[in-house]
Amino acid sequence: MTCADRLTTQAYFDGEVDAVAAAGIERHVAQCADCRALLQDLAQTHAAIRSMARQGAPPALRARILRSLDEAAAAETSRSSPLPWRTRPFWMGAFGGAAGAAMAATLAWYTLSPAIGNPLLDDLMTAHVRSLMPSHLIDVASTDQHTVKPWFAGHADVSPVVVDFATQGYPLVGGRADYFAHQRSAVVVYQHGPHVINVFSWAGNRRQVPADTTRNGYRMMFWQVGDLDYCAVSDTGWDELRGLVRLLQRSSALDNRG
Amino acid sequence: MDDKRGRFEAQVLPHLDAACRFARWLSHSSADADDVVQEAILRAFRSFDSLRGSDAKSWLLTIVRNCQATAHRRQQRRAWVPLPEEHDAEDGHAMIASTPDPETASIGAEQEGTLTRLMAALPEDHREVLVLREIEDMDYRQIANITNVPIGTVMSRLARARAGLKSQWLKDVEGELRDVR
After folding, report:
1. Model's pTM, two decimal places?
2. What is the pLDDT of residue B131?
3. What are the distances in angstroms from CA B165 to CA A172, B87, B121?
4. Does A46 sit within 8 Å of B98, measured CB to CB?
5. Confidence category of residue A205, pLDDT binned at 50, 70, 90
6. Who among B1, B21, B90 is closest to A134 (CB)?
7. Which of B93, B98, B142 to mutate to test the interface with A (most CBs of A within 10 A)?
8. What are the structural domains, with CATH classification, of chain A?
9. CB A177: neighbour CB atoms within 10 A?
10. Cβ distance A131 to A189 under 8 Å?
């Protein structure tokens, strides 16, 4: 025999009733063995389903989707929004057609180029995505900084700071050599929760490193230590990324003193 | 100019994981599901201006469901292949074999496989409400909006999905016990 109030009891379990109704249902459940058993079943089912692994979007799919979004966004802009200087007749009047257009183009180049025209950012993003492909993430798998650091000596042109920050929530996973910025750069791989953080390092040209930016959903944070340029790339949040960058900067400072 | 893209990334893309999970539970294969999600994201981007209010997750899942229905009509394949996570190998997270978190540790891999199979065997309209409620934490009203049925229907489907899952589970476990004897 089943109780006619089962749906109400289920709604109570799902948190869909207000406090007054809840009190009434609790009184009912106290007397109804059927609903007591139901509540127990609901809790068991809920626990079992919740304990299943929660798959998210695989990185390869995420990258594919972001690429197609880029294309869709580009298509929309070229179709709908007029070029910036067309909306400003003032500029046209002030500088005349050709001069104004040239100026706007130059201006656009300078303001947009750090964000969209910088090949370094593309290289880093591509390297990060590639690293998430099968067996590309690490060349030397070790949580021991004393294994990873010497490995770089034979495989990369630079020797970055390598420290395991497992106790701070950023366990060291390994290292990898990647070719970009025209050199064999060193990549130190950390994990933070479910996220992979790639810390790229290469011999900089002593110019300023790019500003922190988001590229296709991946956050990039840049800094310099001596003549080494660093960039941390991940899909984790800014705060989490900054946490690791601070730890690395502090370790570099200690290294230099020691 | 890039403003729409930026707002979309901030408001909608945080729900990409949920969209993938939902699509996989609805789809016949994970490759199909991936295509559905990509199509849904693009459709969502094009109609982003129509998103009113803040419930981007419901909105996106509704689009995923519509795309899935379109794709399903297109191919009309019946057999449901239980998700052979072919992307796991490509997944950086999976490659670093991390210690299971306490929640995952409570259910064995074998039981998880059984549960996945049983959920996959539920009728589609039962499965989707169950997934939206138990995995995506949607409330009755959100589920009603996404699946386009009245709340009362959501409640009865949910009850039948849960009861069906439980009785199949018991049957399965009893079957195993019989096998052992």
Report:
1. 0.54
2. 95
3. 42, 27, 9
4. no
5. confident
6. B90
7. B93
8. 6-50 (no CATH), 61-117 (no CATH), 119-257 (3.30.200.100)
9. 17
10. yes
Report the gap between the CA of B104 and the closest CA in chain A (Å): 5
CATH class, domain B107-181, is mainly alpha
Interface touch B96/A196, C-beta < 8 Å: yes
Q: What is the pLDDT of residue A98?
A: 53
CATH number for domain B1-76, candidates 1.10.1740.10, 1.10.3720.10, 3.40.50.150, 3.20.20.70: 1.10.1740.10
Identify the pLDDT of residue B72: 80
Q: What is the DSSP pairing of strand A172-180 with strand A183-192?
A: antiparallel
Cross-chain CB nearest to A65 (options B38, B91, B155): B38
* Percent with pLDDT over 70 in chain B: 76
Q: Report the C-alpha gap between A115 and B81 in whole angstroms.
A: 43
ipTM of the complex: 0.78
Q: Nearest to residue A205, comparing CAs of A183, A187, A221?
A: A183
Specify whether the CB–CB gap between A256 and A226 falls below 8 A: yes
Give yes or no for B139 touching A (CB within 8 A). Answer: yes
Chain A interface, mutation test: which of B35, B95, B151, most A Cβ atoms within 10 Å? B95
What mean pLDDT is reported for chain A? 80
Say what percent of chain A tops pLDDT 90.
29
